[in-house]
Amino acid sequence: MPDRLARTRSAGVLAVLRAPSPELALDAAEAIIRGGVTGIEVTYSTPDAPAVIRELIARHGDAALVGAGTVTTPEQAERAAEAGAEFLVSPGTLPDLTRAMLGTGRVVMTGALTPTEVMTALGLGVDVVKIFPASLGGPSYLGALRGPFPDAPLMPTGGVSPDNLADWFAAGAVAVGAGGDLANGASIKAADWADLEARAARFSASLAAVRP
Fold first, then answer.
1. How far apart are CA 146 and CA 128, in angstroms?
2. Contact 117/128 with Cβ under 8 angstroms?
3. What 3-state class would DSSP assign to 99?
4. pLDDT averaged over consecutive 10-residue blocks of the chain (212 residues)?
5. Spatial separation of the C-alpha atoms in residues 194 and 201, rounded to whole Å
6. At 89, is the secondary structure helix, strand, or coil?
7. What is the DSSP code (8-state) at residue 18?
8. pTM assigned to the model
9. Which of 8, 69, 76, 167 meets the CB 3.0–4.6 Å disulfide criterion with 139?
10. What span, in angstroms and rounded, lies between the C-alpha atoms of 90 and 117?
11. Rounded to whole angstroms, what are the CA distances from 91 to 25, 34, 196?
12. What count of other Cβ atoms lies within 10 Å of the Cβ of residue 17?
């Protein structure tokens, strides 16, 4: 049976991209990809996120892993899937929304923090449980969740940096989501693409050190 998460595992890092306009989102994604991070989560906090997803896929094809984040309604899940999103991410786990996300056939990642929430997400059949905000417990908390959930694909988001990337993977992360330390909001607003590219290069180098 094919590994549905093969491309997620390969990308390793998903840049959680929030931008004030589609144009800035595209430029930010290009800078991050140039820096070596090829997983791009275009959040619905970004205006016209499906259009950004569609354009990134047109530009990069399979060379980038592009999906939608902050999915909060079934309609958003459907629109992102129609745009070609390879994965869908929600900050929480609502049963009806999760079922709608699963109905698209895309890789589905829904948010959880407590063991009960992890059990809910796994029971609904999600592909990845997004541990969010992971900064509250750090890598040691992710490792603790591995006790009752040794085989669950867990993806910490929040509090991930190049300096602690190795700790997250050592704790059992299947991949990580990186927001402000990678897709930095101030840099995006200032159109500082050199800074974003440098941030991505640091993440890419850390990932290469973890998984040579």
1. 14
2. no
3. helix
4. 86 98 98 98 98 98 97 98 98 98 98 98 98 96 97 97 97 97 98 98 97 76
5. 10
6. strand
7. -
8. 0.96
9. 167
10. 13
11. 20, 27, 24
12. 28
Q: Where are the alpha helices (DSSP H) in the chain?
A: 6-11, 22-34, 49-60, 74-83, 95-103, 115-124, 138-145, 165-170, 185-189, 193-210
Q: Which residues pair with 89 in a beta bridge?
A: 109
Strand order in 107-112's β-sheet?
154-156, 128-131, 107-112, 87-90, 65-69, 39-43, 13-17, 176-178
**How many residues in total does the chain contain?**
212
Active-site amino acid positions? 41, 130
Q: Is 199 helix (H, G, I), strand (E, B) or coil?
A: helix
Residue 125 gets the label, from left (phi > 0), alpha (psi -120 to 50) or beta, of: left
Contact 15, 178 (CB under 8 A): yes
| Cα distance from N-terminal residue to C-terminal residue, the chain | 26
CA–CA dist 156, 135 (Å, integer): 8
d(CA 26, CA 8): 21
* Residue 1, pLDDT score: 47
Amino acid identity for residue 83 in this structure: A
